Amino acid sequence: MLLRMMVVVGMGTRPMEYRVAQLEALGRFLEEKKQDILEATGDTRGRCWGAEQLGQGTALRSWSFLQMTQLDSAFIRKDPYGVVLIIGPWNYPIHLLLGPLIGAIAAGNCVVIKPSEKAKNTGRLLAESLGCYLDSDCFAVVTAGVQETTRLLENKFDYIFFTGSPSVGRMVMAAAAKHLTPVTLELGGKNPCYVSDTCDVRSVARRLAWGRFFNAGQTCVAPDYVLCTLEMQEKLMPALREAITEFYGSNPRESPDFGRIVGQKEFQRIRALLCSGRVAIGGQTDEKDLYIAPTVLADVLPSDPIMQEEIFGPILPIVVVASMDEAIDFINERPQPLAIYTFSSDSKVSRTSSGSFCGNDTLTHMILTSLPFGGIGCSGLGRYHGKFTFDTFTHQRGCLHRNMGLEALNTLRYPPYSQQKLGFLTATFEIKRKGALLPVAFLLCVTLPVVKTLH
Ligand SMILES: *[C@@H]1O[C@H](CO)[C@@H](O)[C@H](O)[C@H]1NC(C)=O
User: Where in the numbering of this chain does the Aldehyde dehydrogenase domain appear (predicted)?
Assistant: First the structure.
């Protein structure tokens, strides 16, 4: 059952007519089962507020609209959540902490900042100097290892913003659940890059190599692997070699623009992945220097170790598929990634699901502040960047200030609900299923004050 839904979602459920038809069916259910609903709710709730008695609640809503007047004032207040915890990662230790911090401050929160313990220098820098700039009553930097962070998470925060791995993300969410604290989780995943047969191979290779080898591959949104035909793999290989040489010279180890792996443990994990497929470009490593050359692996199989986890290093595996449809199936059989990339003129890839999408390039979509950035499913929860960051740290509080006059109008809403009262209300306000929107909109316009938004 659940499995069938997972196949159908995003295909069968997307067309507008389908959604309208389903909503109409729900309306029919409410209409045809009215009596059963009354009996079922009567069982447990009595005549609570008369809502069910008044015809599926819609009448009650229009009824309350009617009682609002221009003397009342409705508005949305953008409130801060309160005390926010921001946990940063090591790969972009300043950027991925300060980005969310800006939004949290803009929204009016107090913030506890927890830099990654793996990025020692930036952690120390922030701990020592941020306090000289920001109000230390409201903003604090906590340098903490795994154990201290676990203890930190036992506190009740009002919002937690975490960037890191899915496994730590699960622990953060479990800790947050104890206090029902809302979370944003910026995680990772294996981001596929599909390359069709009809591309300009040189440009593809440069855009792909830049995205993969930037920061030595330690980027959550980097293209993780390539899907293309055997023919395209043959064409891509010399083009990728050329792009790598153009960017990092004939010995990337000497290039000031090519990074190193963050630590021993990560180095060993990534080096072990080199046994997958066939090394077509690069492959050199130096443990003392934490150096792994920009590497391309050809003929990688879906069962190879490198296809079982997010690589997070300077290795680009190519998995051969027969067609675009096969590539789409391959992507859909796996957890939803943070990003999907395609070099193609076909838009069929919208039949997939991912946190974000970028056509004909890599990484660049995340530079636009007009686009929300975040994952879906295993690649994360929530979104930020630009205005979305402010919204993330903001609680939209619906407020109504009513006028104390015209009390007589309220009589209908108060018990006891005599047959006359109910009859009057149902007759006057029951909204028919068809054309329901019009009277509601009309009532809203004539009686409700304009909703304002306060910052
Ligand atoms: C990729 O570029 C080609 C050629 O400029 C264009 O026709 C196509 O629509 C682009 N594809 C996407 C997904 O943006």
Answer: 65-396
C-alpha distance across the termini of the chain, in Å:
45
Output the residue whose Cα is nearest ligand 1's atom 7: 345
What token pair was written down for 206?
A: 């440069």
Q: For ligand 1, atom 6, name the residue with the nearest CA.
A: 345
Catalytic residues: 186, 220
Amino acid at 407: E
pLDDT category, 53, cuts 50, 70, 90?
very low
Residue partners of 40: CB distance under 8 A and separation at least 6: none
pLDDT per position as a tens digit, 336-385: 999 999 999 887 777 899 999 999 999 999 999 999 999 999 999 999 99
Per-residue model confidence as pLDDT tens digits over 394-448: 999 999 998 888 888 788 888 888 888 777 766 655 554 444 444 443 343 334 4
- Ligand 1 centre and the CA of 361: distance in Å? 10
Domains parsed from the chain with CATH numbers = 1-55+65-188+385-397 (3.40.605.10), 192-353 (3.40.309.10)
Tell which phi-psi region holds residue 9, choosing left (phi > 0), alpha (psi between -120 and 50) or beta.
beta
Look at the block and give the residue holding tokens 């909109």: 441
